[in-house]
């Protein structure tokens, strides 16, 4: 539904405080990051016609069409008690990351009442939408090349995040709705660093729960190892075409990681793969290799998961199988073969 951005900001509980909010919001300014060639101020943003893209863990996300014809995405964060200094520090850490596989944070806004983050808009939608929208209907399937590009790009983006800010940065919310396609059709990771600011105390919603590493469910503390787990679930999602948590027809909710384990243990490995992928010739070996990497990333014990920098080499190696390109200079790609995943058991008929 189209509506003025200001209109959406002040509806419901903000209605009463409309005048106060309008006055206060004009005092603070949008803070832009270097290299951002967008030129607008808060007034423009408030005047823009906005469409709600969705409500997520940390707030509501809008697509805002500015009067200068630029379209941006504005994330309006839920109420949080986080102090200005802490918020600004985290925004600086995130906003200064410039990498082709990480969505650039263009600007942010902080006031006591409002916290906004401004990103580029991706008009193809998220990987989640590409994989799951209109299944069973007439749709163009996400081909294997694109899925490989998503995996490689996302891995590179996460690895870059992990070495940023003195190696201390954690994404904290890896999932398909936070991955987009960049102009080279490689994965691009969005929405980083918010868990640090706003650890959600409420139980995670179902669509987030499937990506959560087991240790995060107890401690609520995301880490680089839990990002690796989330990436592993993303790989399994790309391979199976199934959501991280999905219904089987009855009331039962199935977790993708458990489902993949059980299928691989009890049936042919080939049964796990997305039927939409079966039309592409000669990709079986690559899919099995990718499955092995995914399974290694979702190891239950955090210390047993590979580091993201190694995962990058592994997923890049998968692409080389088909292209026949030599592996990178003396690459020491670790090989991982979880039990029951021998290539011989993967006959796709
Ligand atoms: N830059 C963007 N361009 C296009 N669509 C976006 C962009 N950022 C987010 N979206 C989409 O907007 C919707 C809402 O996003 P939001 O990040 O608020 O929630 P989420 O991804 O579902 O959950 P979470 O808050 O846990 O990340 C999602 O469908 C997401 O894919």
TrEMBL record:
<protein>
    <recommendedName>
        <fullName>Protein kinase domain-containing protein</fullName>
    </recommendedName>
</protein>
<feature type="region of interest" description="Disordered">
    <location>
        <begin position="322"/>
        <end position="349"/>
    </location>
</feature>
<dbReference type="Pfam" id="PF07714">
    <property type="entry name" value="PK_Tyr_Ser-Thr"/>
</dbReference>
<feature type="compositionally biased region" description="Polar residues">
    <location>
        <begin position="324"/>
        <end position="335"/>
    </location>
</feature>
<feature type="domain" description="Protein kinase">
    <location>
        <begin position="47"/>
        <end position="318"/>
    </location>
</feature>
<dbReference type="InterPro" id="IPR011009">
    <property type="entry name" value="Kinase-like_dom_sf"/>
</dbReference>
<dbReference type="InterPro" id="IPR000719">
    <property type="entry name" value="Prot_kinase_dom"/>
</dbReference>
<feature type="binding site">
    <location>
        <position position="75"/>
    </location>
    <ligand>
        <name>ATP</name>
    </ligand>
</feature>
<keyword id="KW-0067">ATP-binding</keyword>
<dbReference type="GO" id="GO:0005524">
    <property type="term" value="F:ATP binding"/>
</dbReference>
<dbReference type="InterPro" id="IPR001245">
    <property type="entry name" value="Ser-Thr/Tyr_kinase_cat_dom"/>
</dbReference>
<dbReference type="InterPro" id="IPR050994">
    <property type="entry name" value="At_inactive_RLKs"/>
</dbReference>
<dbReference type="InterPro" id="IPR017441">
    <property type="entry name" value="Protein_kinase_ATP_BS"/>
</dbReference>
<dbReference type="GO" id="GO:0004672">
    <property type="term" value="F:protein kinase activity"/>
</dbReference>
<keyword id="KW-0547">Nucleotide-binding</keyword>
């Amino acid at each position: 539904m189209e509506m003025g951005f200001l209109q959406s900001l002040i509806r419901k509980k903000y209605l009463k405080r409309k005048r106060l909010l309008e006055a206060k919001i004009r005092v603070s300014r949008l803070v832009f990051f270097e290299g951002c060639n967008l030129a607008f101020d808060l007034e423009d943003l408030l005047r823009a016609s906005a469409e709600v893209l969705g409500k997520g863990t940390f707030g509501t996300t809008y697509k805002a069409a500015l009067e200068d014809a630029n379209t941006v995405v504005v994330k309006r964060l839920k109420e949080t008690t986080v102090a200005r200094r802490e918020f600004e520090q985290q925004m600086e850490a995130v906003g200064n990351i410039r990498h082709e596989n990480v969505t650039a944070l263009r600007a942010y806004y902080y006031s006591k009442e409002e916290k906004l983050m401004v990103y580029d808009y991706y008009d193809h939608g998220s990987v989640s939408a590409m994989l799951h929208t209109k299944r069973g209907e007439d749709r163009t399937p996400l081909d294997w090349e694109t899925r490989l590009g998503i995996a490689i790009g996302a891995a590179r983006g996460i690895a870059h995040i992990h070495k940023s800010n003195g190696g201390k940065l954690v994404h904290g919310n890896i999932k398909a709705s936070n991955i987009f396609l960049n102009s080279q059709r490689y994965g691009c990771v969005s929405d980083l660093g918010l868990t640090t600011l706003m650890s959600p105390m409420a139980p995670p919603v179902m669509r987030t729960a499937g990506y959560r590493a087991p240790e995060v469910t107890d401690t609520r503390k995301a880490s680089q190892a839990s990002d690796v787990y989330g990436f592993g679930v993303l790989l399994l999602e790309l391979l199976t075409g199934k959501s991280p948590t999905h219904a089987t027809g009855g009331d039962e909710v199935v977790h993708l990681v458990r489902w993949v384990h059980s299928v691989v243990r009890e049936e042919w490995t080939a049964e796990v793969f997305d039927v939409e992928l079966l039309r592409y010739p000669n990709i079986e070996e690559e899919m099995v290799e990718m499955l092995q990497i995914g399974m290694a990333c979702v190891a239950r014990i955090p210390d047993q998961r590979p580091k993201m920098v190694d995962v990058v080499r592994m997923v890049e190696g998968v692409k080389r199988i088909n292209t026949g390109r030599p592996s990178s200079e003396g690459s020491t790609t670790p090989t991982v073969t979880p039990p029951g995943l021998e290539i011989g058991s993967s006959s796709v008929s």
